[in-house]
Design goal:
about 170 residues; mainly alpha; three-stranded mixed β-sheet; two-stranded antiparallel ribbon; 6 helices
Length: about 170
């Protein structure tokens, strides 16, 4: 993949993510690394999983090597999602204890930005098209084992919120 073209795309998507989140520009953009899906799954999930993009703490976004964000809108949306996580880190957003609820808040914001961006893209089919298809669900109980049960009268999170594993079809 053309490194210069990827850098230009990252710069454009960072601007979009900044305008949709209000986050400030980072000192430098992240590096983008393409990995075989199996290696990406091992790094992100410690085993097989349906992951196509991952941003661990640091300055590198990892994408499934089957994705082509230069040519495919859905792949660009995945990259944008990971860039939101990069901006969250660089801006100290949603900082605090590493808990499942914090992770869900980060994911919710990234998916909402991704959804809004997709709605504005020509050929994405508006709110009922690709933006809806890229609104995956993650069962809260599967990932939030570190959370105490909701207290009586407390507003509980829905059982399913946007997450990384649904409706993603790599090229």
């Amino acid at each position: 993949m053309d490194a210069g073209a990827i850098q230009a795309l990252v710069a454009a998507l960072l601007l979009s993510a900044q305008s949709l989140t209000g986050y400030t520009a980072p000192a430098a953009p992240p590096a983008i690394a393409f990995l075989p899906q199996g290696e990406l799954a091992l790094r992100a999930c410690a085993g097989p999983c349906a992951v196509y993009g991952w941003f661990p703490p640091g300055h590198t976004i990892y994408l499934d090597e089957r994705l082509d964000p230069l040519e495919d809108l859905q792949a660009r949306a995945i990259l944008l999602h990971e860039l939101v996580h990069f901006l969250q880190q660089e801006n100290g957003a949603l900082a605090g204890p590493r808990s499942c609820r914090t992770w869900l808040k980060r994911e919710h914001e990234a998916f909402e930005v991704e959804r809004r961006w997709l709605i504005a893209q020509p050929g994405a089919g508006g709110a009922g098209g690709l933006a809806r298809a890229r609104a995956p669900r993650v069962p809260l109980g599967r990932f939030c084992r570190d959370e105490p049960p909701a207290q009586e009268g407390a507003k509980a999170l829905p059982a399913r919120l946007p997450g990384p594993a649904d409706a993603i079809r790599p090229r």
